[in-house]
Design brief:
Blueprint (H helix, E strand, L loop, with lengths): L7 E4 L15 H14 L3 E5 L5 H10 L8 E7 L11 H8 L4 E7 L2 H7 L4 H17 L3 E7 L1 H22 L3 E6 L6 H15 L4 E6 L6 H10 L4 E4 L13 H10 L14 H12 L16 E2 L2 H9 L17 E2 L7 H11 L8 H15 L8 H11 L8 E9 L10 E9 L2 E9 L2 H14 L9 E9 L10 E8 L4 E8 L2 H20 L1
Parallel strand pairs: 1-2, 1-8, 2-3, 3-4, 4-5, 5-6, 6-7, 7-8, 9-10
Antiparallel strand pairs: 11-12, 12-13, 14-15, 15-16
Length: 526
């Protein structure tokens, strides 16, 4: 593509993303995230502030051991402090000593922030920006300047906001990023502001955008900025960050590449978006929202009978892009509103040799209806559905047989969360093994015991873990005798799958879903 149609991407998962609630990256997590982002092909990886804590200091030291194919590492920090020379400013020195090719400096563009927060003069702030950028450039760094609170500054004093950008450009910054720091700007305001800046300064530097999602407009504002002429976009790959989060780069990049005709990743890399996002979610220890655009498991899921029938005839009927364009899959959800064609489509994906008229198809459909009457629901439980089909076709051989399990619970003691204990005996071929486990609850204890028993025969289960557990009471009028449906989501670090179990006994329903989860993994690992 022409240079004018290229947008560079800066991912701030390791800096802005790390400020999100519940996010805590270990040193190895950070190194793994760098490799994922480089594999995806983002231009810049903002690695954080090298002087913020000892863990980040060690992280920056370790970065020199990683050979990157596509990305440049950027260290992040503020312009020099007031009344302190650049060569004496500890934060600036830390940025230089981080040995990254790129430095991201942030400075104030809102007069209110300058006078009331920094307690300095407007001219001194301009000097701080110019001198800090020039100092880093003199040290051989590529400098990105983040104009913090730019859009508030634009409203209060647009000429001064522009002067802060000009100071950074005069200092040698190659990219000037306009930051919607409070996430409060409206799309048309962003468009008009960026358009003005591009016309005034676009020939001197690349103009970028950095938005937050406080008004649920971070993606829209980023796209509007690009359409106004911005050629650099910042955000976090999965959108998480402080408060309501940052601009979701997974959606922005997909929209730029597939809808707007821009290039922001190496050729064909957009097809790897979904699996790499899943890996990042796993490392971040978060459940990827099923409804997340482009990369969620429900992004291309169809349930209503009319919809599924149309999609099976021609996906263009209800899909805005092909799922494989972003590395995702089409999902046909099975429920009481699904048509026969939708159910057969899922069966046929597992057993392509079957037709609608095959006797095996009729047998499977009959079995599904019987299970649904008992409370089973295979919507979102594709792993259990896969096992149901293979078992009914005689293609399945159990990996183990349960001899018995026993669960004991007790009142937890202060400081000891383990309140349940499980003992399990299984048979694999002619061998028996007995294992025990303790956990925060009976299902956790069963999981620990079963995992311990299976590891003896199948070491690959060490890489599997449960990521979600849901319980639904089906017949509330029956009170404690009601049927319960349990859904278990699991992962091996790369793939995710969901299984279902139903019983009047919560532990048995959990056991059924748990067994399906392990068996599904073994089917695809051995």
């Amino acid at each position: 593509m022409d240079a004018k149609n290229t947008v560079t991407i800066l991912d701030s998962t390791l800096r802005d993303g790390a400020q999100g609630e519940g996010i805590s990256f270990s040193l190895q997590d950070k190194l793994s995230i760098v490799q994922i982002l480089d594999e995806l092909g983002v231009k810049y990886i903002e690695a954080g502030n090298p002087s913020s804590n000892p863990k980040d200091e060690l992280f920056f030291a370790k970065l020199s051991d990683i050979k990157l194919k596509n990305s440049k590492i950027a260290a992040f920090g503020a312009t020099r402090r007031k009344n302190v020379k650049c060569e004496k400013d500890e934060n600036l020195l830390a940025l230089i000593n981080a040995n990254t090719p790129v430095v991201t400096l942030f400075g104030k563009s809102w007069p209110f922030q300058v006078t009331d927060i920094l307690h300095t003069s407007l001219q001194q702030n301009l000097d701080m920006i110019y001198e800090s950028v020039a100092y880093c450039v003199k040290q051989g760094k590529e400098v990105i300047f983040d104009a913090e609170h730019f859009f508030e500054g634009w409203k209060q004093n647009g000429e001064y906001a522009l002067k802060t950008l000009e100071a950074a450009i005069e200092g040698g910054a190659k990219i000037i990023t306009l930051c919607d720091t409070k996430g409060s700007s409206m799309p048309l305001d962003v468009y008009q502001s960026v358009l003005t800046v591009v016309r005034r300064l676009g020939r001197l530097a690349d103009i970028g955008i950095h938005t937050h999602n406080d008004a649920d407009l971070a993606v829209a504002n980023s796209l509007m900025a690009v359409q106004a002429g911005a050629t650099h976009v910042q955000g976090t790959l999965l959108g998480f960050g402080e408060r309501t989060g940052n601009a979701n780069l997974s959606a922005i990049m997909a929209n730029l590449e597939l809808k707007l005709g821009y290039s922001c990743l190496p050729p064909e890399n957009i097809k790897r978006l979904t699996p790499l996002c899943q890996q990042l979610a796993e490392i971040s220890n978060i459940a990827l929202s099923q409804g997340m655009p482009y990369i969620g498991t429900n992004a291309f899921a169809h349930k209503a009978g009319m919809h599924t029938d149309a999609v099976l005839k021609n996906p263009l009927a209800y899909e805005h892009i092909k799922p494989e364009a972003v590395g995702n899959d089409r999902v046909i959800l099975l429920s009481e509103v699904s048509g026969r064609s939708a159910v057969f489509a899922k069966i046929n994906k597992i057993a392509p040799e079957l037709t609608k008229e095959s006797p095996e198809t009729a047998t499977i459909l009959k079995k599904i209806k019987m299970l649904e009457k008992d409370g089973y629901q295979f919507e979102g439980a594709d792993a259990s559905f896969y096992l149901l089909v293979t078992k009914n076709l005689g293609k399945y051989k159990p990996f183990f047989n349960l001899i018995y399990y026993k669960v004991i619970g007790e009142q937890p003691q202060p400081g000891n969360p383990a309140a349940s204990f499980a003992q399990i005996k299984i048979q694999v071929n002619d061998e028996m093994t007995i294992r025990a486990g303790e956990g925060a609850g009976p299902v956790h204890a069963l999981d620990v015991a079963l995992r311990s028993a299976l590891e003896v025969f199948y070491p690959c289960v060490k890489g599997m873990r449960l990521t979600d557990f849901k319980v639904r009471v089906l017949d509330s009028k029956d009170a404690t005798a009601a049927h319960v449906r349990v859904l278990v989501e699991s992962t091996d670090g790369k793939n995710f799958w969901t299984t279902v179990g139903v019983s009047t006994d919560l532990i048995e329903a959990s056991w059924l879903a748990l067994v399906d989860s392990f068996e599904y993994m073994l089917c695809h690992s051995l």
